[in-house]
Amino acid sequence: MQMTRVKAVVAYDGTNFAGYQSQPSMRTVQSEIDKALVKIHKDKKIHSVASGRTDAGVHANGQVIHFDTPLTLPLDRWQTALNVLLPMDIRIVGVEFIDEKFHARYSATGKTYIYKWSYSEVHSPFERNYSVHLGKWHPDVQRMKEATVHFLGTHDFTSFCSSKTATSNKVRTIRQLTLEEQGDLLIMTIEGDGFLYNMVRTIAGTLLAVGKGWNTPADVKRILESCDRKEAGKTAPSHGLYLDSVTYND
Amino acid sequence: MQMTRVKAVVAYDGTNFAGYQSQPSMRTVQSEIDKALVKIHKDKKIHSVASGRTDAGVHANGQVIHFDTPLTLPLDRWQTALNVLLPMDIRIVGVEFIDEKFHARYSATGKTYIYKWSYSEVHSPFERNYSVHLGKWHPDVQRMKEATVHFLGTHDFTSFCSSKTATSNKVRTIRQLTLEEQGDLLIMTIEGDGFLYNMVRTIAGTLLAVGKGWNTPADVKRILESCDRKEAGKTAPSHGLYLDSVTYND
């Protein structure tokens, strides 16, 4: 049967999901997407493949998936059909037909994540699931910025991933790491060739420890070299984290 | 017993509440606030009084309540104690001690509501509970602005309130009514001396009908004069509505 590969960009509010990946009897992003695909394909099982998982509570502006279909719907109908069937906390924001050599996970050449903290005096009820509240207390953002340089480039990130990480190669390259204040929000943006399990949240937690004065910017270099997860800061909470975009070579 | 009256400004995300007012076995904003007050007062029942109810799904940036307490906590402790006990979708954003002649409902001299529509191509999953999606279609905002003038001033708003409204006096004064585009959002702001049940949402629905070309701006005058709810537009959905602030004469 002639199959067509569809690439889709997906935004989701991670609040009410037990993470991205399908799990028995849990509400996950993948299971909702695959359920919609089954309906479109009249009960034939179609599985989507994502660029990677995200944890419970983690959001996405631009997760990327692909799936193969025997149907011959025009492109705009794919977006409409999926959005009609999906719950409102998952939205397909873009679709394209793509070569079958494209793979949402293996073809990815980079990912960008965003992490948001809020230092509004009272955490807005509308922000409660979308940023991590620091209270009235302002971290030393200049100090945090000084620490970012140590993450840039290629390093062994053993100190910055969950000890449960199965991947043996823990070398990753960080291409960009910025901190920006926008109103009451402090926003970290990080771009790299790939990220280990909990890596962005551990980097966020470690930068915050620097901002709190518990570590110096130079300590980051020492922590990286130690290759010991216990040296790094806490894993920052999931609800401040957004998978912002995934890049591919065209 | 010496009682102290406390005035508090309350923000809430209305999404997960069955409205403001206490109802048996329902999660409401008032029941959560009164539960927190009971805890602070060691199981003594203290009832809060609000400026008015809001419906299920309606949000607030600045609802106002008052309650009387025999306790002598310092002012900042009231805010902290309530916020510790309240769920994260209700936040006390301000407190003050106030004369016992102040009454959150009867002393109010005006209220401001905001209504939000979104015309982003795809409704962001993060916006789904906070604005009403119009889809790709843009209403004629200039036409809607022309219609706003007919609401200004003092009118009988029988056509613009639920037929279930118990209040016999349906005369209200609108002091301000503006429409503003902010990015993908169309925002209506309305200020008046008071509002009947569903009045803001019916005005919003009627303005949108003008923007859609179903009614002319001049029709608004005719609808007001008809004193017939059936003449006005649909009641706009609750999740676009925010009680923004309540004003009092000092």
Automatic annotation (TrEMBL), chains A, B:
Domain of life of the organism encoding this protein: Bacteria
EC number: 5.4.99.12
Segments crossing the lipid bilayer: none
Residues reported to bind substrate: Y113
Entry keyword set: Isomerase, tRNA processing
Domain Pseudouridine synthase I TruA alpha/beta: 8-106, 147-249
Active-site residue list: D55 (nucleophile)
Keyword flag tRNA processing: yes
Substrates-to-products reaction catalysed: uridine(38/39/40) in tRNA = pseudouridine(38/39/40) in tRNA
InterPro entries for the chain: PsdUridine_synth_cat_dom_sf, PsdUridine_synth_TruA, PsdUridine_synth_TruA_a/b_dom, PsdUridine_synth_TruA_C, TruA/RsuA/RluB/E/F_N
GO MF annotations, alphabetized: RNA binding; tRNA pseudouridine(38-40) synthase activity
Pfam families, A to Z: PseudoU_synth_1 (PF01416)
Tagged with keyword tRNA processing: yes
One of the GO BP terms on file: tRNA pseudouridine synthesis
Top enzyme category: isomerase
PANTHER family, sorted: PSEUDOURIDYLATE SYNTHASE (PTHR11142), TRNA PSEUDOURIDINE SYNTHASE-LIKE 1 (PTHR11142:SF0)
HAMAP family attached to this UniProt entry: TruA
Subunit structure: Homodimer.
UniProt function note: Formation of pseudouridine at positions 38, 39 and 40 in the anticodon stem and loop of transfer RNAs.
Family as reported in the entry's similarity comment: Belongs to the tRNA pseudouridine synthase TruA family.
Protein name: tRNA pseudouridine synthase A
Originating species: Sporosarcina limicola
Gene: truA
